[in-house]
Design goal:
- By secondary structure, the protein is of the alpha/beta class.
- The chain has a single domain, classed as 3-Layer(aba) Sandwich (Rossmann fold), CATH 3.40.50.360.
- It is built from five helices and six strands; from the N terminus they run βαβαβαβαββα.
- Strands 1, 2, 3, 4, 5 and 6 form a six-stranded parallel β-sheet that branches.
- α1 crosses α5.
Length: 182
């Protein structure tokens, strides 16, 4: 059975990113997948300090914070759904440490890797312009390719500022389509 992990990078509980991700996961679950969610808000997640001690203690990172739990959940998943609001045309501050702390998976000594897992980006923005996501999408695709993740078509909802804005327009339909494709 396929395991799908939603990684929620929004500081706002019940916001647009979470609403879309929940719809994606429900639709994937209806097709037989096991789904789970990890909320990054409230976790202690430090940024990478480039200490070059990856895997020196048998785990991906030597920093003592909650990233070990995040790495464990990622390891168990077949599909990763990265959900983040667009902040200053890139990742939220909750999601950024997750990407920075993927550095250990580029090491030859890696105890496990991310190759072959699927990844999809679910992003929301108050900005009305679809091209507002260009920087985030470039970061996502390039990072996925570097890590060996098979990235799928992103779900990018623009013009959704207030919580609940994704309930109007085409966004929920797109989330259903994304969920069914997983």
């Amino acid at each position: 059975m396929k395991k799908i992990l939603g990684i929620l990078g929004s500081p706002r509980k019940g916001g647009n990113s979470e609403t879309l991700t929940e719809r994606v996961l429900v639709c994937a679950g209806e097709r037989g997948a096991m789904t789970d969610v990890i909320r990054l808000q409230g976790l202690k997640l430090s940024g990478c300090i480039d200490c070059r001690k990856c895997w020196s203690r048998g785990s991906p990172c030597v920093i003592d914070d909650d990233m070990g739990k995040v790495h464990d959940r990622i390891r168990e998943a077949d599909v990763l759904v990265f959900a983040s609001p667009l902040y200053w045309y890139t990742w939220s501050s909750q999601m950024k440490p997750v990407w920075d702390r993927f550095l250990p998976f580029l090491h030859d000594e890696a105890g496990w890797d991310l190759k072959g897992k699927k990844a999809v980006l679910v992003a929301t923005a108050g900005d009305d312009k679809p091209d507002a996501f260009n920087g985030m999408v470039f970061s996502f695709r390039t990072s996925c390719e570097l890590l060996g993740l098979d990235h799928m078509e992103p779900l990018l909802a623009h013009g959704v500022y207030e919580a609940g804005d994704v309930n109007r327009g085409k966004w929920l339909e797109m989330a259903v389509k994304t969920g069914r494709s997983l």
